[in-house]
TrEMBL record:
<protein>
    <recommendedName>
        <fullName>Ribosomal RNA small subunit methyltransferase A</fullName>
        <ecNumber>2.1.1.182</ecNumber>
    </recommendedName>
</protein>
<keyword id="KW-0489">Methyltransferase</keyword>
<dbReference type="InterPro" id="IPR020598">
    <property type="entry name" value="rRNA_Ade_methylase_Trfase_N"/>
</dbReference>
<dbReference type="GO" id="GO:0052908">
    <property type="term" value="F:16S rRNA (adenine(1518)-N(6)/adenine(1519)-N(6))-dimethyltransferase activity"/>
</dbReference>
<feature type="binding site">
    <location>
        <position position="102"/>
    </location>
    <ligand>
        <name>S-adenosyl-L-methionine</name>
    </ligand>
</feature>
<feature type="domain" description="Ribosomal RNA adenine methylase transferase N-terminal">
    <location>
        <begin position="36"/>
        <end position="212"/>
    </location>
</feature>
<dbReference type="InterPro" id="IPR011530">
    <property type="entry name" value="rRNA_adenine_dimethylase"/>
</dbReference>
<dbReference type="Pfam" id="PF00398">
    <property type="entry name" value="RrnaAD"/>
</dbReference>
<feature type="binding site">
    <location>
        <position position="29"/>
    </location>
    <ligand>
        <name>S-adenosyl-L-methionine</name>
    </ligand>
</feature>
<feature type="binding site">
    <location>
        <position position="127"/>
    </location>
    <ligand>
        <name>S-adenosyl-L-methionine</name>
    </ligand>
</feature>
<keyword id="KW-0949">S-adenosyl-L-methionine</keyword>
<keyword id="KW-0963">Cytoplasm</keyword>
<keyword id="KW-0808">Transferase</keyword>
<comment type="function">
    <text>Specifically dimethylates two adjacent adenosines (A1518 and A1519) in the loop of a conserved hairpin near the 3'-end of 16S rRNA in the 30S particle. May play a critical role in biogenesis of 30S subunits.</text>
</comment>
<dbReference type="InterPro" id="IPR029063">
    <property type="entry name" value="SAM-dependent_MTases_sf"/>
</dbReference>
<dbReference type="InterPro" id="IPR001737">
    <property type="entry name" value="KsgA/Erm"/>
</dbReference>
<keyword id="KW-0694">RNA-binding</keyword>
């Protein structure tokens, strides 16, 4: 059995062999604890029929755990310096393809078509670069890729916001954007000590199971998300005031918005953070009818 990449000793040896220096700007915090890696793969329920997309393989710590259990792994890595290292560290695994691209620019849908036609389900599994956590998750969801789910390590604070319920301080437009497409659950918190270098913040693993249909049906998706964002624009303001500010100013208009809120039985004095996703859907449909 080959020794895991993700042990402090082997990681150090690989980094020294290649004279690799971490780039903070690329969110390079590598995992050095094999148990955490197995837990990530467990939570993703990866099997021999799973195609896995990994984002940011680093020196291959998570990639090798995925390769041992999945049918195939396709990993997007932005840092060109890591490509020859990955070629070396992952040489025992024939089911891994590394793509040297920024995942935010990459055609992920094409990669899925090219590599996963013989897989039964597709999961995204990653220890994400923390500077772009939200754009990456939103890209994967908004492109409506044929994913079963996403299991990723990220900042605990972001995981808390994603999985938050209404009327909590963490609940906001990010919670609604992600829960619209997925069932979200934080499955594990992870201490800083399992990374080199250690990040400044605590981490967590979140599991997002993609819904067959969004949790609510809305008349216009982009208008719905605009209303959600506008409702949280100033968290301390009432929903009525945030909407008046968003939909332009004027007395007459304020009255129209008040009437629309009443028609869907939402008190305009409430704050955005108290509205459920279903209430936002009702509200945005009524405003869409009234104002478009
Ligand atoms: N998977 C490795 C591990 O767990 O040890 C490394 C994880 S490290 C937190 C994040 C990785 O993402 C780094 O290898 C970094 O170079 C890469 N990365 C950063 N931005 C990226 C982007 N936009 N697209 C693809 N990879 C990116």
């Amino acid at each position: 059995m080959i020794k895991d990449i993700a042990t402090p000793v082997r990681t150090k040896a690989i980094l020294e062999k290649y004279g690799f220096s971490f780039k903070k700007s690329l969110g390079q915090n590598f995992l050095i604890e094999p148990n955490v890696l197995s837990r990530i793969v467990d939570h993703a329920e990866v099997t021999e029929s799973t195609g896995v997309i990994e984002i940011g393989p680093g020196i291959g710590a998570l990639t090798e755990h995925l390769a041992r259990r999945a049918k195939k792994v396709v990993a997007f890595e932005i840092d060109q310096r890591l490509i020859p290292i990955l070629k070396d560290t992952l040489s025992p695994y024939e089911n891994v393809t590394i793509i040297n691209e920024d995942v935010l620019e990459a055609d992920v849908s094409k990669a899925i078509t090219e590599h996963f036609s013989d897989c039964e389900e597709i999961m995204v599994v990653a220890n994400l670069p923390y500077y772009v956590t939200t754009p990456i998750i939103m890209k994967l969801l908004e492109e409506k890729l044929p994913l079963k789910g996403i299991v990723v390590m990220l900042q605990k604070e972001v995981a808390d916001r994603i999985a938050a319920k209404p009327s909590t301080k963490e609940y906001g437009s990010l919670s609604i954007a992600v829960q619209y497409y997925t069932e979200a659950k934080t499955v594990m918190t992870v201490p800083k000590t399992v990374f080199v270098p250690q990040p400044n913040v605590d981490s967590a693993i979140i599991r997002l199971l993609v819904r067959e249909e969004p949790i609510v049906a809305v008349k216009n998706e982009s208008f719905f998300f605009e209303i959600v964002r506008a409702s949280f624009a100033q968290r301390r303001k009432t929903i009525l005031n945030n909407l008046v500010h968003f939909l332009a100013n004027g007395k007459e208009l304020k009255q129209n918005i008040e009437e629309t809120l009443t028609s869907v039985e939402i008190d305009g004095r409430r704050r955005g953070e108290s509205l459920s996703i279903a209430e936002f859907a009702r509200l945005s449909d009524a405003l869409y009818e009234a104002f478009s």
